[in-house]
Amino acid sequence: MTILLLFHMKVKQIIFPCCVKIGVIGCCFLLLISSPTSASFELKGSSARAQAMGLAYVGLANTPDAIFLNSSGLAQLNGIACSIYYTRPYGLRELSYGSIAATAHTPVAKIAVGAIQFGNELYGEQSLLFAISRSLRHNLFYGANLHYMKLHIAGYGSDFSFAVDAGFLMKLSERLTWGFFATNINRASIGQIKDQLPQTVSFGMSFSPHDDLILNFDIFKDVAFPMELRVGAEYLILRRLALRSGIINEPPQFAFGFGFFFPGARVDYALTTHQSLGMSHHLSLQLQVKSSKSPGAPTPLEPPKSQSSMEFKININSADEQAWQRIPGIGPKLARRIVEYRNQVGQFHSIEELCQVKGIGPSKLERIKPYLTLDQN
C-alpha cells in the first residue's frame, strides 16, 4: 500500500507535469504545422499594415518593417524611424509574436536592425536581423539581411543558425513598382538533425491607379508548401485615416484593418481570419524619431498624396537633379533644365517662377506644387 501511495505521489509531482509540458509543446508544433502563423523563423509581415493587406507588401515595402518582407525597400526611407508590432494568433499565448525594427540614414546606405520574439518559455524563437539597403539612380533599390535565429525548447536545450536574405525593388513608373525578395539563400539549418529552415521566394507588384489608392499583388512560395497568391488594397480618406483589406488563397485567409496618422507617428490595426482556427488581432506603432534634411527624401509616416512614392517636399533652390526626378511627371531632361536655369538666373523667389523653365506650364505647375517648397527648414 505504501509503495502504491509513493508511486501515486511521483506521478502527481513529476510524471503528470512532464506530460502536460510535452502536451503543450506538442500542441504548439501542431499549430505551427497546420496554420500559417509566424513561426519556424518564417519572415511574415511584422506590422498590422502588412497583415491588413494580406501580407502583399513586397512591391511596396516603404516602412521600417520592410526589413522583414523586402529589405531593399528601406532605401526609400530617410532619417531615423522605428516600428513596434504585437499579435497573439487565435488568442493563444503560446503563439505570442512581437517584433521591433528601426532604420537610419547614412551617407553610404540605409541601415536597419530588427528583432522578433515568438512563443513562450516552453517553445521559443528569437531572431535578430541586420539589413543594409542602397539605391541605384532613383528607380532601383537593393538590399540584404543577415538573420540570426535562436531556437529554445524546454527540456531539450537551444540551438542557433544564420541565414542571408536579399531582394530588390524597381520603380517601373511613378505609379508602378515591382519587387523581389528571397529568404535563407544559404539554406541554413538548425538542430542536431539539421532541420532546414524555411526558404521562401516572393514577387510583388504595387500599383497606385489613384492618388489615394494602392493595390498590391504578391506571389509567395515556400519551397516546402504550395504557392500563395496575396492581394491587398489601401485607401486613404480624410488625409489621416487609411482603410485596408487583403486576401490570401492558400490556405484561405481574409484581412482588413485601418491606420491613423499623427504628427510623427502612425497607429495601425488589423484583423485576420482563418477558416479553421478563427481570428487574430494585430497592432503596431510606427514613430518618426528624426527626419533627414536630404532634399526630396520621403518619410515613412506622413499620409501621402501619392502613396506609391510617399508624400515629400523639395526645396526648389537646393534640390539636385535626382531630387527633382522623385516628383511625378518630372524626368531627367526636365530636372536638368530646372537646375541649369537656377544656376544661370539665380535662386527662385517664388514657386510660380518655375513657369519660366521650358516644359513647365501652369497645369504642370499645379500638379507638382504639393511637392515644392521655398522653406529652408
Describe the structure.
The chain has helices spanning 2-34, 48-52, 66-69, 321-324, 332-345, 362-368, and strands at residues 80-87, 97-105, 110-119, 123-136, 140-153, 157-173, 176-182, 189-190, 195-196, 200-210, 213-222, 228-237, 241-249, 252-262, 265-274, 278-290, 314-315, 372-373. The strands form 3 sheets. It has a 14-stranded antiparallel barrel with strand order 1-2-3-4-5-6-7-10-11-12-13-14-15-16. Strands 8-9 form a two-stranded antiparallel sheet. The chain folds into 2 domains: 29-290, monomeric porin ompg (Porin, Beta Barrel), CATH 2.40.160; 314-373, Photosystem II 12 kDa extrinsic protein (DNA polymerase, domain 1, Orthogonal Bundle), CATH 1.10.150. Helix content is 18%, strand content 43%. It is an alpha+beta fold and 377 residues long. Mean pLDDT is 83; it is low at 1-39, 293-300 and 304-310. The chain starts with a helix and ends with a strand.
**How many individual β-strands?**
18
- Cα-atom radius of gyration: 24 Å
What string, H for helix and E for strand, traces the elements in order? HHHEEEEEEEEEEEEEEEEEHHHE
Strand order of the largest sheet: 1-2-3-4-5-6-7-10-11-12-13-14-15-16
| CATH topology term of the largest domain | Porin
Share of β-strand residues: 35-45%
**What sort of overall outline do the alpha carbons produce when their principal axes are compared?**
elongated
Could you describe the largest sheet, including whether it forms a barrel? 14 strands, antiparallel, barrel
